[in-house]
Amino acid sequence: DDKLPVIIAKDLSVEEKTALIMVLKSHKRAIAWKLFDIKGINLEFCTHKILMEEDFKPAVQHQRRVNLKIHNVIKKEVEKLLDARLTYPISDRWCVCIDYRKLNEATCKDQFPLPFMDQMLERLAGNEYYCFLDGFSSYFKIPIDLKDQEKTTFTYPYGTFAYHRIPFGLCNASGAFQRCMMAIFHDMIEKTLEVFMDDFLVFGNSFQTCLSHLEKMLKRCEDTNLCLN
């Protein structure tokens, strides 16, 4: 197997490092390093809907010219998304440019609140141990409702494609992700971990407590198909 990096505090004892690595190894399905590792969160927890304003008008934007020097770069990136099953080829009479400003203007805004940073820091203060995790392409974990996927359609010189999961650039994406994380970790947030957008922080007043909280979190990730880094 490929060896992939984990950053561990240098002041942990050998026994503590060994215990931490054992927990991480036992929950490898909850950890992602590459796009291919992202499975997509279980539909029962969240599906993103793109609800349109009543007076919206369908908009078509022409494909923009791209410098020939970066054609291959773009092609490789789209192929990477296809290989990871985050996008799929589509043929439809309506297509939206990957610049989602027109779509965002016509989308009903989701006012889901983000946590107050100062209150979060107050809850975290005073703990002895912390474990930081990153959402790693966090939006790509949330499925888009089937009937709304065509609204994410984009074109480039080699075809027309739509997203299975939320792409970067959609309005309401951050609110959708925060809502989904609160649904998944509803019994842990503010008690054993904090979530702010795609940043996750597990805490505890002792190494063993923090490790126990981390293991519980990773188990929840596995149960819901959520992958972190």
TrEMBL record:
<dbReference type="Pfam" id="PF00078">
    <property type="entry name" value="RVT_1"/>
</dbReference>
<dbReference type="InterPro" id="IPR043502">
    <property type="entry name" value="DNA/RNA_pol_sf"/>
</dbReference>
<dbReference type="InterPro" id="IPR043128">
    <property type="entry name" value="Rev_trsase/Diguanyl_cyclase"/>
</dbReference>
<feature type="domain" description="Reverse transcriptase">
    <location>
        <begin position="95"/>
        <end position="229"/>
    </location>
</feature>
<protein>
    <recommendedName>
        <fullName>Reverse transcriptase domain-containing protein</fullName>
    </recommendedName>
</protein>
<dbReference type="InterPro" id="IPR053134">
    <property type="entry name" value="RNA-dir_DNA_polymerase"/>
</dbReference>
<dbReference type="InterPro" id="IPR000477">
    <property type="entry name" value="RT_dom"/>
</dbReference>
